[in-house]
Amino acid sequence: MNSGIQNIVISLGAMQVARRIPFDDPEVLNYVRIGYVASQVVIMGVYFYVSYKVRQKNDQTVLKYVDAPNPMSPDSGGLVTTTVRDYDLSETSKLLRAVYFGVAMMAFFHLYMKYTQPLFIQALMGLKNLYDAKLVTIHVLGKPAEGDLKRPFKTASMFGAAAGPQTDAASITEAEKKIGAKKED
Question: How far apart are CA 18 and CA 123, in angstroms?
């Protein structure tokens, strides 16, 4: 099943379960808070561990790809030359930023707006996202980087085909020609 569809199914299921949890009871609410904080600490700990493992392996294999253009930015979508180590560290950084943003949003929703159900739902969704993270699969679970785990990672679309960077030789050559043409101007 597609990851996006799994997220929707898990969210809807968690909402149904959350309706039955008595958040009015201060003791239950404290347990949910502890569960949320514990899940976020585990998630960040695993991502920091992945970052440590990437630095420890220090894979300097060159990785070339043409980044997918962003329709909002005219300068995006060019040739990217990096190493596996730097690519993995940047992907880990993106994952950590997503966790930080989620924690900030939950702090706003829970502390300022007094919503309690999202604590339960986001604790589950965070663990599900941790399980889906390709870097965790490679560096923690030890699976080889082939197939869906091959770098650069493709992002799955809700509607089927995965979109992402192009790694074929023709696309890379074309991007190198564009860079060469810009340098001549």
Answer: 12
pLDDT digits (tens, 9 = 90+) for 144-182: 999 889 999 887 665 655 667 777 777 777 767 776 666
Alpha-carbon distance of 96 to 93, in angstroms, equals 5
Q: Where are the alpha helices (DSSP H) in 23-140?
A: 26-57, 84-107, 117-132, 134-139
Average of pLDDT values for 69-86? 80
**Residue matched to tokens 């707006």:** 113
Identify any residues that bridge with 163 across adjacent strands, giving them in sequence order: 155
pTM, rounded to two decimals: 0.85
Q: Does the structure show a pLDDT above 80 at 76?
A: no
DSSP characters over 44-57: HHHHHHHHHHHHHH
Closest CA to 79 of 168, 155, 184, 5: 168
How far, in Å, CA of 143 to CA of 149, rounded? 8
Copy the structure tokens of residue 168: 């074929």
Q: Where are the alpha helices (DSSP H) in 58-82?
A: none
14-22 own/partner pairs: CB under 8 Å, 24+ apart: 14/120, 14/121, 14/124, 14/125, 15/117, 15/121, 17/120, 18/117, 18/120, 18/121, 19/117, 21/117, 21/120
Give the per-residue pLDDT at 183: 64
Burial class (CB in 10 A: 0-12, 13-18, 19+), 144: exposed
